[in-house]
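Appendix B, record 7
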Amino acid sequence: MTNSGLYLSAIGVNLEENSGPKKGVREMCNTLETAVGCGVNHFDLAPHYGDSRGAVEEIFGRALQRFSNLREDLVISARAGLGTQSGLMPGFGSRKCLMTSLDSTLSRTKLECVDVFYAHRYDAFTPIEETASALDSIARQGKALYVGLSGYAPAMVRRVAAILRDLGTPLSVCRVTYSMLHRWPEDGLLDVLADERIGCVADGTLDVTFGPYPDCSRKEVERLQTRLSRISLRRGQSSRQCALSWVLRQPSVASALVALPDSDDLLEYCAAVHKTSFAEEELVSVDGCFPEVHRS
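C-alpha cells (predicted):
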C-alpha cells in the first residue's frame, strides 16, 4: 500500500457468495492453510452476492476459528452497497446500508472488525458526503481498520478521498475490475490512485482466461485464447499466470483477486507473482490479442 502501512499479499482470495456452497468448513480450512503457506494473507468477502446470503461469511468465520492464531496476520476485507442488500431498498450508499451491512458481516463471521471495508459502487441518490462520513464513522468505531471504495469512477474517487482526508480518515484502497480484457482503469483511474497514493485491488483478473467475451463469436474467443497461450508459453507461464502477472506489473496494483480456488490452483496463481516484468514486445503482443471493443 502507499498512504498507509497496510500490506496486502500480491494474490488475494475473492470469497464470492455464490462459491460458498461449493466449499464446506473443511474445504475452506484447506484453502486457508494452503494460502497462508504460500504467502497469501488477503481474503475478500462478498457478503450478499448469490442466492445463499451470508453463507460464505459463516463458513469462512467458522474455518477461521480453527486458525485463530492466524488472525493478526490476515487482511480480511468486506464491502457493502449495490447488490449487498436484501430486497429492493434504495440508498445502497447510505449510512444505514453501509453500517448495518457491516454489522451483519461481523455477526456472521464472529469477527470484531474487518481490516478493510469498501463502499461498493457510487449511489447517485445518496449524498457522497454521507457515504464518506459513514466510512469515517466505521473506522472511528473500530469496525474497520482501513476504508476504501469499490467500483468508483476516477472523479468520484478524488472527491471521496478529499472528503475523507478532511475528516482525518484516509482513503487507503480502491477495488476495481481490471484485466487484459477490461482496461477501463487505465483511462484515468490508475493515475488518480497513483496521485492520491491509494492502493489498487484488482478483481476479475482472470476474466481473460475464463470469459465471458461479449460480442465475440466462439471462433474469435478460441483464436484469442490460442494467441494468449502462445505468449504465455514463451514466458514460461500458463495463460492464467500471465494474466495475473500482467495486472500485477502496474505499480498501483497492490493485490490481484482470484475466485475461491482449489489448493493446486492457488499454488499456480502464487507463482505468477515472481514474473511481473514484461518486455515491450510482450506488451504489444498482449494488446494485439484483444479487439478494441474489449479495451474500455
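Remarks on this record: The two ends are 26 Å apart (CA to CA). The chain is about 40% helix and 15% strand.
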